[in-house]
Write a structure and sequence with these properties.
By secondary structure, the protein is mainly alpha-helical. The protein has helices at residues 2-62, 69-84, 98-117, 121-125, 127-162, 166-172, and strands at residues 87-89, 95-97. It has a single domain (2-172), classed as LemA-like domain (de novo design (two linked rop proteins)). The chain is 73% helix and 3% strand.
Length: 198
């Protein structure tokens, strides 16, 4: 009878160890998955900061009669579409990310806007414009920092769930890898600023 209790305790102890091991792996996956999500929200916070600054930039620029309205209109429209864009993750873990695409379009248009602004020395010299540009520059640096941090957190998570034996449990509980931020096509080329011929 005593032997039966010892065997039952050994079996119970074995299953308890297995349970605690699986629980530890699962909880680590959940923790890292939440860290990726939280870091994504940090990126979105900086996107929102950028979108809040754009109306100020447009307003200051519109005060100059010669300024090209088509670019200002495009910036305003892109800001609206970026605000409505959503973020989702598909079954393969890749991002089906309207927010990133909208942000990349916004960056491209802002880049063109800044090139056009170079033609207007009075605008560049204005105190209001200078303040808005300083804020925008700081925001762009924050966006870049948060994206970089997101990639680091996503890499840690992706590496963890792809390692053995975590990959078994990640597959069982349907945890997917997260996509990284990548450079826009043509991002390696700096915008060309034409000299002012006025």
């Amino acid at each position: 009878m005593k032997t039966v209790y010892i065997v039952l305790l050994a079996i119970l102890g074995f299953f308890l160890i297995i349970f605690l091991w699986v629980k530890g792996i699962y909880n680590n996956i959940v923790t890292q998955d939440e860290a990726v999500t939280a870091q994504w929200h940090q990126v979105e916070t900086q996107y929102q900061r950028r979108m809040d600054l754009i109306p100020n930039l447009v307003t200051v620029a519109q005060n100059y009669a010669n300024f090209e309205k088509a670019t200002l209109t495009e910036v305003t429209q892109l800001r609206a579409s970026a605000g409505q864009a959503n973020v989702t993750w598909n079954a393969q873990g890749s991002t089906v990310d309207q927010k990133i695409q909208a942000s990349q379009q916004m960056e491209s248009t802002l880049s063109r806007l800044l090139v056009i602004i170079e033609k207007y020395p009075d605008l560049k010299a204005g105190e209001q414009f200078s303040k808005v540009m300083t804020e925008l520059e700081g925001t762009e640096n924050r966006v870049s920092f948060e994206r970089h941090k997101f990639n680091d957190v996503a890499q840690d998570y992706n590496t963890y769930i792809r390692r053995f034996p975590q990959n078994i449990f990640a597959g069982m509980f349907n945890f997917q890898t997260r996509a990284y931020f990548e450079a826009d096509q043509g991002a390696s080329k700096a915008p060309v600023i034409q000299p002012n011929k006025e």
